[in-house]
Specification:
This protein is α+β, with helices and mostly antiparallel strands. 48% of the residues lie in helices and 11% in strands. It is built from seven helices and four strands; from the N terminus they run H-H-H-E-E-H-H-H-H-E-E. It has helices at residues 6-12, 15-20, 22-42, 77-98, 114-131, 151-160, 165-177, and strands at residues 51-58, 69-74, 179-184, 187-188.
């Protein structure tokens, strides 16, 4: 159902649900977990996962120029959580254990943050200046880099890091067949756009 929202999911694990409706909330949670396990095992994407609402938020407060807005895609909470758990956490943990990530890769890694990367760069420059050692550096900050990832290649790399094939198929199915609706102050659009052979969005 498209009437679900994050508040319903939070209500299932709230103190009130655990205190007054433990049997009902646990039963609903078990059903939802069973659905997600089926998706991971068989690579199935539920129909409600294929409806994605796209909203715009300003990159800088007060600047509402169209080219200065950031697009946020709102997907179903369980689909978002499932991909975040399997791909975002388990895959990164596996990659850290197997040491398959480059040491200069700081994004999306536990124990590393933006300030640490900046501090490392500043300290490297200071060491070079104090020791009078020649130093060259290269900064790579590709514009819209996440938007330009080739989906098939990205999912193959996920498989290399131990992500189950069912999870990759499920993620690919959502991206290939999703219907993107636009949300504005007037509401959510009835019409939508999606990927097709003539106008592919991904890959």
């Amino acid at each position: 159902s498209q009437d679900r929202h994050l508040g319903h999911w939070k209500a299932l694990i709230s103190h009130t649900a655990a205190t007054h409706f433990p049997d009902d909330s646990n039963h609903i949670i078990k059903v939802l977990v069973a659905q997600m396990n089926l998706s991971i095992k068989h690579g199935y994407a539920w129909r409600r996962w294929l409806r994605i609402v796209s909203a715009k938020i300003p990159k800088r407060a007060g600047n509402m120029l169209l080219n200065k807005l950031r697009t946020i895609h709102l997907i179903e909470p369980d689909c978002n959580w499932l991909q975040g758990l399997v791909i975002g956490r388990r895959m990164i943990k596996s990659a850290e254990t197997n040491e398959t990530l480059h040491d200069n890769q700081w994004g999306c890694r536990p124990g590393r943050h933006a300030l640490g990367a900046v501090m490392l760069k500043v300290m490297s420059y200071e060491v070079s200046r104090l020791t009078r050692t020649p130093l060259g550096s290269f900064d790579m900050d590709a514009a819209s880099c996440f938007n330009r990832i080739i989906m098939a290649l990205g999912l193959l790399l996920c498989r290399r890091e131990g992500v189950p094939s069912g999870t990759c198929i499920m993620a690919a199915t959502v991206l290939l067949y999703a219907a993107f609706h636009i949300k504005t102050s007037h509401g959510v659009s009835y019409n939508y756009y999606s990927s097709s052979d003539d106008h592919p969005i991904h890959g």
